[in-house]
Specification:
- The structure holds 2 protein chains of 2 kinds.
- By secondary structure, chain A is of the alpha/beta class.
- Chain A contains 4 helices and 18 strands.
- Chain A is globular, with a radius of gyration of 18 Å.
- By secondary structure, chain B is α/β, with parallel strands linked by helices.
- Chain B contains 9 helices and 16 strands.
- In chain B, helix 4 (176-185) crosses helix 5.
- Classes of the chains: A alpha/beta, B alpha/beta.
Chain lengths: 253, 308
């Protein structure tokens, strides 16, 4: 049974782990208790021997199992990559605020590993019957995970789909698809541009931010960013107030 | 989960705790977030995030970095200010029957005195002074690094605050003994030791032939500082008559016992709360089981044997 009981520490186990592109891995985790997860929420994974848990956007939530996509970037992801089917894994979640789910025409932009929450969001939007278009950008063909199905793909080197940064095509996508809302996840530079372009076209925009975190639950104030609120610039934690923010409220560094 | 723990009863020179496990300032917020994970009222006490007279926005940019055995933080004491704390957090703490200690921080003597008075007037039972803040009026030297300025600060706070007063000592000093004695002489009921060490993290990446550096300078905490903390606690134990609350890299029951052996009467759990939010609760249960297993009737007995 899937219940919504708030944040929890889960002793879970690895259901499967597989390589899905040249440098991307997919891990599916089976928690003892299953919970409803919103697109844009994340889980915080304990990595053996490391002080800080590592946050990962949820990519899938089938039958209560939690799927994440990751690239091996450091010690934390190296540890997760080393896990085998059946191994124990300690996670906290789901954490943070998710994307708003509305019956609006939605354009979803995923850049690189930012595809993960976008693919999950697409599923959620499909469920309520909202029309949506998932567009994704990757470095090249080899970086496209085999388990994602964007309707539009862009690669920097043109080895698959259209050539060039997804940002170069955003205006065109907006003009053709005419979205009422744009959702995005990816490197900060992409989110900044998407937010600016959405504002130019006067379209709502929600983005998922990323920052190094310690607690993951809003206690330590380690992951704050500046946001505009009631005409003032204030701190917001990516882990608790986010990771999803309105594109036009973020004050970019 | 009900934890019955008379055996763990801890008396610290006038402060009664149901057990000696306390959560350290800055690692437990105002505790509301942790209620999702455990029953916080089981913990001996929680020390709140440092609270200043006025709300503080804290430091900009990158605030945390992981190190080999811990982390560095430069949060800059971001907090909601004493007024909002009293208004919004105290009722929740009281309602949930949580034993709390208010950590206060100021940048001038006057600010500390004012905070002390407010805590006194609002019947705050226990206060822990963060004295690792720069004193803006003395060239930003930290209060806690100079015995005269610390003595003066604690004396003035003592005059205004009649409750239980803990002074949290910084290890970034030549002689923690002299600083601890100054706190005791000025009327502190206990000291807690240690606050974070000064640390610097430089993460270097070479991208397209150029170095990219990610730098965080701030307080180093976590497992790596345990030997430093134990040493400071032990040196304080040899000179002070007031109780010492040990802090620094405590993660396991073994760590707790080591701090008792070094002279700590109670302990604070810090950075590990971020990694495993249920650590305090686990330690309480483990300590009780350990005492049962080894036939200790109370903590004094255990500490006596550990220190013999």
């Amino acid at each position: 049974m899937i219940t919504d009981t708030g944040k929890k520490i889960y002793k879970a186990h690895v259901k499967r782990i597989e390589k899905v592109s040249k440098s991307t891995y997919f891990i599916e985790i089976e928690p003892r208790e299953k919970q409803e997860i919103k697109a844009g929420q994340f889980i915080s994974v304990y990595c053996d021997g490391l002080t800080l848990r590592r946050p990962f956007s949820v990519f899938s939530n089938n039958n209560g199992n939690i799927g994440i996509l990751f690239k091996e970037r450091g010690k934390g992801t190296a540890y997760i990559k080393s896990l085998k089917e059946g191994n124990d894994i300690d996670i906290i979640g789901p954490l943070g605020k998710g994307f708003s789910i509305k019956p609006q025409k939605a354009l979803l932009i995923g850049a690189g590993i930012g595809i993960a929450p976008m693919a999950f969001l697409k599923e959620k939007l499909d469920k309520i019957g909202a029309e949506s278009l998932l567009a994704a950008g990757f470095l090249n063909k080899d970086e496209i995970p085999s388990n994602v199905y964007p309707q539009k793909i862009y690669t920097d080197d043109g080895s698959y789909g259209e050539k060039g940064s997804i940002l170069n095509y955003l205006g065109l996508l907006i003009n053709e698809f005419k979205p009422e809302i744009i959702y995005a996840c990816g490197p900060q530079i992409v989110l900044k541009s998407v937010s600016r372009i959405a504002q130019e076209y006067n379209i709502q925009c929600e983005i998922a931010m990323e920052k190094v975190m310690a607690c993951g639950i809003g206690v330590c104030r380690g992951c704050v960013i500046d946001i505009k609120k009631d005409g003032k610039v204030v701190n917001a934690t990516v882990c608790k107030d986010g990771p999803v923010f309105n594109g036009n409220e973020v004050v970019w560094q | 989960m009900a934890v019955i723990i008379d055996k763990l009863y801890t008396e610290l020179n006038g402060l009664s705790l149901k057990n000696p496990i306390i959560t350290a300032s800055g690692t437990y917020g105002y505790c509301d977030e942790y209620n999702d994970f455990i029953d916080v009222s089981n913990i001996g006490a929680i020390v709140t995030k440092a609270i200043s007279l006025n709300p503080r926005a804290g430091n900009k940019h990158l605030r945390i970095a992981e190190t080999k055995a811990g982390m560095i933080n430069s949060i800059g004491l971001e907090n909601i200010g004493i007024e909002k704390f009293l208004e919004t957090k105290v009722p929740l703490l009281n309602k949930k029957n949580i034993n709390y200690i208010v950590n206060i921080a100021g940048s001038t003597l006057e600010e500390y005195v004012c905070l002390a008075k407010i805590c006194n007037d609002n019947n705050i039972k226990a206060v822990e002074m963060n004295v690792s803040c720069p004193n803006v009026k003395s060239g930003c030297l930290e209060f806690g690094t100079d015995e005269d300025s610390l003595y003066n600060l604690v004396s003035e706070v003592r005059k205004e605050y009649k409750g239980y007063l803990i002074v949290k000592l910084t290890p970034n000093v030549t002689s923690i003994e002299q600083i601890g004695l100054a706190a005791e002489k000025a009327g502190a009921d206990a000291v807690s030791a240690i606050n974070t060490l000064k640390g610097l993290s430089i993460k270097i990446n070479r991208v397209n032939g150029k170095y990219q550096k990610t730098i965080v300078q701030g307080g180093y905490s976590g497992a790596g500082i345990k030997p430093v903390a134990l040493s400071n606690v032990n040196r304080l134990y040899k000179v002070l008559s007031i109780p010492i609350i040990g802090i620094g890299g405590i993660e396991t029951l073994e760590d707790v016992l080591e701090f008792f052996a070094a002279g700590a009467q109670a302990v604070q759990i810090g950075t590990i709360n971020f990694t495993h939010p249920d650590t305090a609760q686990k330690l309480i249960i483990e300590l009780e089981n350990y005492m049962d297993y080894n036939g200790f009737k109370n903590l004094d007995e255990l500490k006596r044997e550990l220190r013999a």
